[in-house]
Recover the amino acids of this structure.
């Protein structure tokens, strides 16, 4: 099975690490994100949030730990013969930081597609991905609408009812179980 995998919020525990840095910078005390668009939770403009990330990208992409079970889960998928294609909203300018983080944490990777905040749907279709692991509900909905099932990793900012084609998973163990269940039918 060819599996699409998002990085931030699925492989990298980015938001947890970023919230701490953002609280220090903006003088806030946000405990968890309610919005995927973090600037809303921090009460700052999109431009101010973007400038902070632009000025601190090397640190922000270096500090997160991997999501619990992500490295082991990806290794297991690869051992089972699945192909893992990372599709991230990060830009190609951020490739060096992304590869450095993947190497630092020994996350297996062969193909990483950088969308630069463009829709992931074109990449999903072009690469003929059969299932996608995502944390952003907006991306999950767009991907599922083109007929590709999505496993949505549960997060504080993606709550609510899910349309058909999207299954909420609490952790990487549930992701692996669901992929195992689906691959046994194919």
């Amino acid at each position: 099975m060819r599996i699409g995998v998002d990085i931030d919020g699925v492989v990298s525990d980015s938001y947890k690490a970023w919230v701490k840095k953002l609280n220090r910078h903006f003088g806030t005390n946000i405990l968890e994100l309610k919005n995927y668009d973090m600037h809303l939770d921090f009460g700052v403009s999109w431009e101010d949030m973007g400038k902070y990330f632009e000025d601190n990208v090397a640190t922000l992409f270096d500090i997160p730990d991997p999501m619990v079970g992500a490295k082991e889960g990806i290794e297991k998928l690869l051992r089972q013969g699945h192909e893992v294609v990372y599709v991230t909203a990060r830009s190609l300018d951020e490739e060096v930081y992304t590869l450095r983080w993947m190497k630092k944490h020994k996350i297996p990777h062969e193909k990483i597609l950088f969308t630069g905040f463009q829709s992931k749907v074109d990449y999903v279709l072009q690469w003929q991905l059969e299932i996608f692991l995502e944390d952003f509900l907006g991306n999950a909905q767009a991907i599922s609408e083109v007929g590709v099932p999505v496993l949505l990793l549960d997060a504080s900012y993606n709550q609510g009812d899910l349309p058909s084609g999207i299954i909420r998973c609490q952790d990487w163990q549930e992701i692996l179980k669901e992929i195992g269940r689906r691959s046994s039918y194919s």
User: Anything to note?
Assistant: The helical segments are 14-26, 38-42, 46-62, 70-79, 95-104, 121-126, 137-145, 172-183.
